[in-house]
Amino acid sequence: MALDRIHKTLTAIICVLGLIGCVQPVPPDLLVALEAIDQDLIALRAPEAAPDEYGQFVHQWVSLKARVQLDDDLIRWPWESSDLENDLRRLYLIGERTVSQLHERQASQHRTAQAKVVRLEAQLHTITSRVESIDGRILLGEKVVQTDLLVKQARSFFEQKDFQRAMQVAEKADHALKAQTVLLNRELGRYADESRIAYWQALAKQTIEWSRIHQSTAIVVSKADRELTLYKSGRKVLSYPVRLGFNGMLEKQFQGDGATPEGRYRVTDKRGQGQTQFYRALALDYPNAEDRRRFEYAKKSGKIGPAKGIGGQIEIHGADNERLAQTLGCVMLDNPNMAVLYEGVSVGTPVTIVGAVTRGNAVALALSELAQRRDEI
Fold first, then answer.
1. Which of 3, 217, 258, 269 is in Cβ range 3.0-4.6 Å of 247 for a Cys bridge?
2. What average pLDDT does the chain have?
3. DSSP H helical segments within the chain, as ranges?
């Protein structure tokens, strides 16, 4: 130790006298460069993205800075090697390599997260528009809102360059969107079932044939396409768009479920102004014998609770005001169309309400597109 102090003292005296060029143990620009590396690592979220590498870098950097402070007054000969400087340069190279790797990783995460978020936003737009088009929002409830918030959160993290969190939230949104598609398929898949469609087609065909044979009017309502068609003597006279109950696409099970019934009915009464809360109405004979049979069977099998009733008062009607713009299970037309239909039919007119009359109905097409989009994500 004494020899080291003598060496340092002599070196300092010689350097002060200017006899030989002497240098500091660590170039100042090397320390500045290492500080910059440290800042770059923090900016690249190294503590989260590469905790092991960053932990090792920080540990060595703290240790080396302590050595720099201890040797701050040390002056060495130009031909003398500096272990401290060598260690600092090695650390710089390690830090520089880590920064480069993180840049590459971040660029890759940026591309992946961007593609994921963009696809999710497109999927959300598709499912939202399709859900609206097939009156499926009630089925999904708050799930649509929650998924929308997740997608917006993923976008926010992406714009903050927090790609890891963006991907994590995007994964949750992805699962939520797929779950919604599965739910819609479970509840509405019958609209794509060929045997069910064939049954509905047979019902509609029989009704049209009845109209032809009896040279009379008949009505067919397609729930999937939300369309009412009036036939006269077996020929189509007119078609009008309709609205259904708030759960109209489902099979009606009990009173208050908001579903529009399916089956063969007849007009039992024509109700004009003052006889109905709506503009005009055609009362139907729901529930008929077939409806009661299905209802009792569902009760016995436990699908419907014992306190539930079968309901009634199903009509084809117009709307009198905005408060009544959403029917509870009936078939609703705009008032001008209702006026024409009201004058065109009489009590006893057959009314057949089916899920769909074609395989390429609106609900089947929407479900197919949603499934295709789901598989793309």
1. 258
2. 85
3. 2-17, 28-43, 46-49, 51-70, 83-133, 137-140, 143-159, 163-188, 194-214, 289-300, 335-344, 362-376
CA distance 24 to 276: 100
Q: Give the Cα separation of 196 and 359 in Å (integer).
A: 10
DSSP letter for 192, please. G
Whole-structure pTM value: 0.71
Q: Which two tokens mark 176?
A: 């939520």
CB 86 within 8 A of CB 27: no
CA distance 335 to 339: 6
pLDDT in tens, 128-169: 887 787 777 777 778 888 899 999 999 999 999 888 899 999
pLDDT in tens, 325-357: 455 789 999 999 999 999 999 999 999 999 999
> Among 252, 239, 264, 240, which Cα is nearest to 329's?
252
**Domain 194-359 superfamily per CATH:** L,D-transpeptidase catalytic domain-like (2.40.440.10)
d(CA 247, CA 286): 17
Average pLDDT over residues 166-187: 90
